[in-house]
Amino acid sequence: MSLTVALNTAVSGLFANQSAIAATSENIANVNTANFARRESTFVTDAIPGQFAGVSVEITRAGVNRFLQSAGYDSASDAGATSVVAQAIARVEASLGTPGEDLSFANKLDEAFGALALLSAAPSSVAAKAVAVNALDAAFGAVNRTLSAVDSEITAADARLQSQTARVNTLLEEVFNLNQIVSGSNGAGDEIDARLNELSKLIDINVTRADDGRVTVATSSGQLLANAGGYAALGFTGGGSAAISLSNVDPASGGQTLVSANINSDITGGEIGGLIALRNTELPALRQIVENAARGIATELNNVYAGNASVGVTAPTTTPLITETGGGFFVNQAILGDPAQFAAARPTGGGPGGANDGAGAAALAALSTSGAANNVATAVTQIGAAARIATDANATAASFASEIETRLASEGGVNLDEELSNLILFQRAYNANARVIAAVDELYQSLLNIL
Predict the structure, then answer these.
(1) What does pTM read for this prediction?
(2) What 3-state DSSP class applies to 380?
(3) What span, in angstroms and rounded, lies between the C-alpha atoms of 256 and 125?
(4) Rounded Cα gap, residues 297 and 175, in angstroms
(5) Structural contact between residues 355 and 145, judged by C-beta atoms closer than 8 angstroms
(6) CB count, 10 Å around CB of 116?
(7) Are 202 and 272 in contact (CB under 8 A)?
(8) What is the pLDDT of residues 380-400, one digit of tens each?
(9) Where are the domains of the chain?
């Protein structure tokens, strides 16, 4: 081997190990950086026929099991969807109060039946009438509180869908832009992974990767969202039934061409999928359960009350006891404002209701064992069951997502022990090449001195 070849070999080793040291230092510096994939140094022998000519190094991002990464996107999507559903239903359940607070409409209705039973024993007491009327008002007020909680969650879901679709659009555009430079930049690969991780929490996605690092993103059903050639944008339309639309975006002008006005069936995961399920299915179903239960018992109360009369009056009252207005249920304002008007007697045989006739109040109290009253209690139970099921589903999905995230980090993340060992190895190789260069320099000096 000539001195020139030895010198070139040592210099190439010097530069290769210098690059490897820089890559290892970058790994150590980013040990706690989210979405950072460690840099791997691969040394390649450079050779010319008949003699060794040196070494070069390739710095690449650590490879990750693509099946595991796909499972990570799926698990993050499931966790995102179940989380928004569990949180929203838990807030609806909170309108019922804790078990010890007795704030649910079922408990308040039981209290109202108890007050009506007491009124039946003292039908001429204005104070007893006031207690019964206020108890009924509290019962249906609790109904309205739960209905308002459901309506508030629907409104909140609309606002969140609006903001989350805008965020998805930003992420898709950024993926498209990063695709243009990723083939020559490890950092761009990290940035793409960060966008995909966030995107998977918002919608369920399928990701295909090219050898040069570029990615193609689609919905779980195959609707194209972004690649190196362009990207799409989501839109949100509220109203009776919320819908997510899909449009293709012209990267040059930003103009959009509608692909589909409703791709709800293509987005079943992520926060957006969860919000769509909440907005169009879960929350309306809960509202219907509460409405049906309240309407059923209100109808029964009104039917019985229609046969009641005030003391000394022969004809039954024509004033309804419970009214349904603006999506809520209320005690008749005339009765609520003047409880003395409450009809607690019940005429018989064409005669007037007597001074001690509490039969009307007793008939109302007897509804406590009716099917309609049981349906009210069942409605509360159904809300609690829905909250429990949603919470359990979220706990399972979150646990699975955490496990996948840990496994992904172990494959592509930074291990300090390993990196420090590599750093020592590369430093020693660097020093060895430096010593070769020094030795060659001494030999050149010796030869020059001889000449």
Answers:
(1) 0.80
(2) helix
(3) 71
(4) 55
(5) no
(6) 29
(7) yes
(8) 999 999 999 999 999 999 998
(9) 3-62+414-450
